[in-house]
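Hi support team,

I submitted a single chain yesterday and got back a structure, but I'm not sure I'm reading the token output correctly. Could someone confirm the output below corresponds to the sequence I sent? I've pasted both exactly as they appear in my results page.

Thanks,
R.
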Amino acid sequence: MVECAGRVEGKVAIVTGAGSTPGPGIGTGKATAVVLAREGASVLLVDLYPERAELTRQMIEEEGGKAAVFGADVTQAAACEAMVRAAVDAFGTVDILVNNIGLASLGTVVDTTEEVWDRAFDINLRTAFLASKYAVPVMAAGGGGAVVNVASISALRGDGTVAYSAAKGGLIAMTVDMAYSHGRQGIRVNAVAPGHITTPMVMSVSAPGARAEFMNTMRSEAGLLGTAGTGWDVGWAATFLASDEARWITGVTLPVESGVLSVTPLMMAPYLRAVPDPGE
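Hi R., thanks for writing in. Yes, this is the structure output for that exact sequence:
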């Protein structure tokens, strides 16, 4: 375990999507919640599947941290309002909000259905809008806070996920506007843009066999470091942006992607030509 320095000691954080899809590894929400707790925050763990958030709570409390679970569908305004109220009731206030909900879907503008488009915006953007809508006034009343939105490099370069990319692009735009609108209330708003990290959710949608093995290799080889990224990398970046170490940083998007945005598509051509057939 990385040595901790109390970066958010005494703060209260809400992390949405704080559970983790079953499987090996750790999701970005779970990792972020655990790192925040290790760094001294009390964390409200919000998830559509509270049993998954319960596993995060157990991990935090086994390490001596403080956490509580709140099951909610954060596409709904009433649930987000209740979520913020639950954090205040449990821990006294809200200092940090991490909007971590996300769901990717393949498709171009031609073959993406209206239903897929609408769902992408509900899951990836509406959730952050509603959670922020109710958390920001509490932060402002308390003298300030920090919001961290988990976006994606898909919003910054094409990858054939038009609905997801557009929604995450909207999240980045919302990040900038929130930073503008609430900076004088002492609220900083930033985003993290993860790259090709390996998480249980990613693994759960990977085809089995040779293609899954190939995709794991490609995620490692895609960036300049040639190593695999995990949910922990996102968790540490989000915690930094939420901490006072980032006290003069707002309105930015921090890529966490092994430099993949510096890699041209032509550099990936040898790997792309070698993609195994899904049936293999």
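A quick pointer for reading it: The chain is about 45% helix and 15% strand. Let us know if anything else looks off.

Best,
Support desk
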